[in-house]
Recover the amino acids of this structure.
């Protein structure tokens, strides 16, 4: 009903004090590498919604809830609220075209082919990698391809492992083109698609904070780390790229988001095309490393 009164601004219902903002900023940076400086409005708006969901009256109450939750799930929920972006299958489709046409054919003579989706969210990215692998390699993919999908959020990982998605998530590719990989829902599941078991078998999911040591995970031929570094400052970006590069096989590829760049940070990678980098078989010279973009 229209009362004629101006609508309330939910972000103003609870005031985010400077000390509360500083505490959130410090925690997000120290624990997750996420830089929130200058983003008070975003933090107030997104966490204000969390306060209303939880029935809390202040950010102080919200922070106490996080501190008292020994499971860490409340802290993870805060990360979700502050970083979650919309995603879809075959997002930034040029990467999947390059994977299909160039990278995977070059790896046909390899034994196992290992790929890592380093911030997999609700699973659209790793399943898109699986679809592309099956298209490029056929039945051989089931024997050779291993896709590791990681995220900091147990909530999004649960959605990913379930593997059921609304049809609009496939807007970059018509579901009909993927019918051999999907089961179409009916009845209560109408308008949704389920990833077939043989596709899901290529992907394993696990929780991982990219600020933690991930060296025990082994080596990869391809790492997707897209639309993650936009949340990091330059120092954190440089550290992450160095550690990701260490996990790449010689000749391997790092794929980042098209809104991201490695310009201005030191790294050992060679530029291939927008948002696509290649690890050379031999290290770059110090001169080229300083200039590498």
């Amino acid at each position: 009903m229209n009362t004629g009164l101006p609508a309330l601004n939910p972000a103003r219902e609870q005031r985010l004090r400077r000390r509360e903002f500083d505490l959130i900023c410090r925690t997000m940076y120290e624990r997750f590498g996420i830089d929130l400086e200058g983003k008070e409005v975003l933090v107030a708006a997104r966490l204000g919604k969390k306060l209303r969901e939880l029935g809390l009256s202040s950010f102080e109450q919200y922070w106490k809830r996080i501190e008292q939750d020994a499971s860490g799930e409340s802290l993870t929920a805060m990360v979700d609220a502050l970083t979650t972006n919309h995603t879809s299958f075959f997002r930034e489709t040029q990467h999947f075209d390059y994977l299909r046409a160039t990278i995977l054919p070059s790896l046909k003579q390899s034994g196992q082919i290992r790929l890592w989706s380093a911030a997999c969210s609700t699973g659209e990215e790793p399943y898109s990698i699986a679809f592309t692998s099956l298209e490029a390699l056929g039945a051989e993919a089931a024997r050779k391809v291993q896709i590791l999908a990681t995220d900091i959020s147990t909530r999004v990982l649960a959605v990913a492992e379930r593997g059921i998605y609304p049809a609009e998530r496939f807007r970059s590719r018509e579901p009909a083109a993927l019918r051999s990989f999907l089961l179409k829902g009916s009845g209560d599941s109408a308008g949704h698609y389920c990833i077939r078991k043989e596709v899901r078998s290529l992907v394993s999911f696990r929780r991982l904070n990219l600020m933690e040591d991930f060296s025990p995970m082994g080596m990869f031929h391809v790492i997707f780390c897209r639309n993650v570094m936009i949340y990091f400052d330059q120092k954190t970006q440089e550290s992450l790229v160095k550690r990701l590069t260490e996990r790449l096989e010689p000749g391997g590829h790092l794929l980042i988001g098209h809104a991201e760049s490695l310009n201005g940070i030191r790294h050992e990678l060679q530029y291939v095309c927008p948002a696509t980098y290649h690890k050379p078989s031999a290290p770059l010279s110090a001169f080229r490393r300083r200039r590498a973009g």
